[in-house]
Amino acid sequence: MSTNAATIFPIVAKTLRDEPRVVKKLRGHFQFIVTRPGSGTDDEIWYLCVDGQNRPPHLSQDPVKNTKGVPLVVIHITDKDLLAWVAGKVSTMRGIVGGRIKTIGDVNLAFEIEDVFREAGGIRKTREYLNTRREKKTTKL
Predict the structure, then answer these.
(1) Dihedral angle at the C-alpha atoms of 74, 109, 113, 78, nearest 10 degrees?
(2) What are the helix (H) ranges across 1-141?
(3) Which among 51, 31, 33 has a CA at the least distance from the CA of 41?
(4) pLDDT score at 74
(5) Is-contact 125 117, C-beta < 8 A?
(6) What is the b/e burial string over 81-98, where b = at least 16 CB atoms within 10 angstroms of the residue's CB?
(7) Which pLDDT tens digit goes with each residue over 4-40?
(8) What values do phi and psi take at 40, rounded to 5?
(9) Which of 12, 36, 44, 116 counts the most CB atoms within 10 A of its CB?
(10) Quick check: 131 and 109 in contact, CB under 8 A?
(11) d(CA 35, CA 10)
């Protein structure tokens, strides 16, 4: 079964490549550790490196090399909460305070990436993804 992260992150990566303006002056190295509690599966780890307009953003499951001097944040989040966060249903502040988003490192980057998700059309694209997923479930019945 495909995870939300495996579907959402490639869409985010394509948007960041196609519309580099959304990253503006953001500089950061993000490591997303996405869990699926109770599933018995391993965590998925995704890496995002953004260096403003200096070089293209990189988002993949391959670690990013040569990030010296770029601020770092590690974000622990469940697959379900990732979907809610990118869709704008959970803010970074509410996620952190409520224990749904855990960070290590530069917590300000977590707040800044929320703005990038929003600017990149995360809410609209996540709703499209959910509608497509819902339609597939309906046609299987």
Answers:
(1) 30
(2) 4-18, 79-86, 92-97, 107-119, 122-140
(3) 33
(4) 94
(5) no
(6) bbbbbbbeebebeebbee
(7) 888 888 888 888 888 878 887 788 889 999 998 888 8
(8) 75, 10
(9) 12
(10) no
(11) 17
Q: What is the mean pLDDT of residues 77-84?
A: 92
How many helices and strands in the chain, by DSSP H and E?
Answer: 5, 5
Pairwise CA distance, residues 10 & 104, whole Å: 24
99-125 per-position pLDDT tens digit = 999 999 999 999 998 888 888 777 777
pLDDT band of residue 77 (cuts 50, 70, 90) is very high
Q: Is 121 left (phi over 0), alpha (psi -120 to 50) or beta?
A: left
pTM: 0.83
Is residue 116 within 8 A of residue 86, CB to CB? The reply is no
Sheet with 44-51: list strands edge to edge. 58-60, 44-51, 27-35, 72-78, 101-105
Q: How far is CA 76 from the centre of its chain?
A: 11
Q: Which two tokens stand for residue 126?
A: 């996540």
- The pLDDT score that the predictor gives to residue 140 is 66
